[in-house]
Amino acid sequence: MTRRTLLAGMGAVPAFAQRAKGPKVFLDYDQAELDAAYNQASYAPNMQQLQARARSNSELIRARLGEPMRSAYGPTEIERLDIYRAKGEKMPVQVFIHGGAWQGLSARSSAFPAEMFIAAGAHYVTPDFVAVQNAGGSLNAMADQVRRAIVWVRENAANFGGDPERLYLSGHSSGAHLAAAALTMLPRGTVQGALLVSGMYDLKGPRLSSRNSYVKFDDASEEGLSPQRHIDKISAPLIVAYASLDTPEFRRQSVEFVAALTAAGKPVELIHGDNYNHFEFLETLGNPYGQLGHAALAQMRLQGLQGQ
Fold first, then answer.
1. Is the pLDDT of residue 12 over 80?
2. Which residues, listed in sequence order, are joined to residue 83 by a DSSP beta bridge?
3. Does residue 305 lie in a domain region?
4. What digits encode the pLDDT tens for the residues 112-153?
């Protein structure tokens, strides 16, 4: 898939893509293009507004629902997770892994989908985990914490009214990468399905991009944390989604991951969000009638609103 193909239909072409190309460093990209393709601000000029809106919408959710149950899944201070509880016992559980370029965001800023899941009869859980710059540049540390958070939820679901046999996973951007990596490490049957939104599934491209200025990539981490290279270890049904205004690399990564899963006979569905950028598309996860919200509830076999 060429750069021209990926840029087609994206509206105004960013200025860096209109200049004379430098030498290719990956696929059809020169260094500036590849760096931009892993920098959301290059393709989503309203990124800061949308991230601020996620924070304010999360505050509104807490004002309506109250503060979440805060529980530790590990020994360090960051290893905590927020549990927004639905009424009832043995309810399904949705675990959401936030993005942030492996560097930022938090469980607290990722509460905005909670009310939709609770209204549909599911608990909503979102963990905090170390930022890569606070882990010496190690993605392995982040992936291990995410894996342990998911295991903790399964092992403790009954204590907060959840059903460990109805555990579902979702993630966005770098969080989709970490969620997908976790799927290659978890025992078969740990989760019943996963929704991966605008993620990265092979780390060769990111390793060659400007992200290598703060992530300590090496051959072992590139290989071990590239879910597309370990599809045989993925057993849960997947929904892979991306936005039409995602960067070219996030679009390519999603399409090629689905192609590889399909070729391996794995159950997978591809969702394409027309006319959304990377951050706008995620907002639909909090809406039972939005593309992502509807898909997540359908995967969990839940209706959007109980009693309707």
1. no
2. 69, 125
3. no
4. 999 999 999 999 999 999 999 999 999 999 999 999 999 999
Residues of the domain holding 29: 22-299
CB 143 within 8 A of CB 223: no
Q: Residue 56: how many CB atoms within 10 A of its CB?
A: 11
Interior angle at CA 282, CA 277 and CA 286, nearest 5: 145
CA 125/CA 11 separation, integer angstroms: 36
Q: Which of 201, 261, 247, 196 is nearest to 227 (CA)?
A: 201
- Is 16 within a domain? no
Q: Say how many domains are in the chain.
A: 1
Find the mean pLDDT for residues 65-88. Answer: 97
**Paired tokens of 191:** 């989760």
- Whether residue 121 lies inside any domain: the answer is yes
- Using alpha carbons, select from 77, 78, 160 the residue that is nearest to residue 124: 160
Q: CB neighbours of 74 closer than 8 A, spacing ≥ 6?
A: 145, 148, 149, 152
User: The domain that contains 255 carries what CATH number?
Assistant: 3.40.50.1820
Question: What is the CB neighbour count within 10 angstroms for residue 15?
Answer: 9
Q: Is residue 7 part of a domain?
A: no
Please tell me the predicted confidence (pLDDT) of residue 20: 78
Name the pLDDT band for 303 (thresholds 50, 70, 90): confident
CB 123 within 8 A of CB 162: yes
- Structure confidence at residue 16 as a pLDDT band (50, 70, 90): low
User: Hey, is 121 helix, strand or coil?
Assistant: coil
> pLDDT above 70 covers what percent of the chain?
92
